[in-house]
Amino acid sequence: MEPDIVILQGEKTYILDTKWKMINGNRPSDDDLKQMYVYTKYFESSYTALVYPDDSYASSHGSFLHEKGEDNRYPCSLIKLKLPLNPSDMISWQKQICGELLSRIGC
Which of 28, 32, 70, 84 has the most CB atoms in a 10 Å sphere around its CB? Predict the structure, then answer.
């Protein structure tokens, strides 16, 4: 089990899983959500997000409920990143994407 991106910041763990398919609206597949739930539990993450390509930047925040009916919620977001068709400067593009991801997850 290996998430695409793991960010460790102090005591917090952020798990991001990139998808290279377009998403219809803001509705990830059940399989993608189950995968993020497993990452949340296994890595005891503070935050998880599914990251999709899109033609604009956007994010939606949600959470998983604790399986035992407790009040605990595990944050899980959906992040859409605008990807250029022909990035002329790959390093600048990567820095832009990194900055956008970090701002979306609150790092």
Answer: 28
pTM for the predicted model, two decimal places = 0.75
> For residues 25 and 54, is the Cβ–Cβ distance under 8 A?
no
Q: Say if residues 104 and 79 touch (Cβ distance below 8 Å).
A: yes
Q: How far is CA 36 from the centre of its chain?
A: 9
Contact in structure between 22 and 58 (CB atoms under 8 Å): no
Q: Which amino acid is at 102?
A: L
Judged on CB neighbours under 10 Å (0-12, 13-18, 19+), 78 is: buried
Contact 94, 84 (CB under 8 A): no
Contact 32, 50 (CB under 8 A): yes
Largest CA distance in the chain: 50
